[in-house]
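Protein modeling request. Please complete all fields; requests missing the sequence field cannot be processed.
Requester role: graduate student
Desired output: 3D structure, token encoding
Chains: 1
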Amino acid sequence: MGCGRVGGRLAGLLAIEEHDVTILDLNDYSFRRLPPKFGGTALVGNGTDEDTLKKAGIEKADAFIALTQGDNRNIMACQIAKHIFNVPRVLCRTYDPLRRELFGSLGIESFSPTTIFAQLVKEKLLEEKPEGEKKAN
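Delivered output (137 residues):
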């Protein structure tokens, strides 16, 4: 769910590996981010709507990933996927690190790009530089 930069890229990568991919988004304009030869299904719809999820094939899905900009929409869709449709693997993008911890306590596997990116930047900042390059203060 969510065909932004990350969702579109992920859908394309999975389709190239011949996974059966359906990507949902509220806006069909978002599908422009998919590769020209995208081998999956692009479906306009709301990932928090059970009928839309059924149309997308959630009842036979091995995984569901929520990658929209909204933490609340993502967790709601993931709870529906996990607890109503019993999808075996459910991943939830959560921008707010505090919410990520809360969602984990609800049994939803989530990740926070905010936390991940901050850690990457810190590691980059503190890495040793070759002789002659300035080190950050």
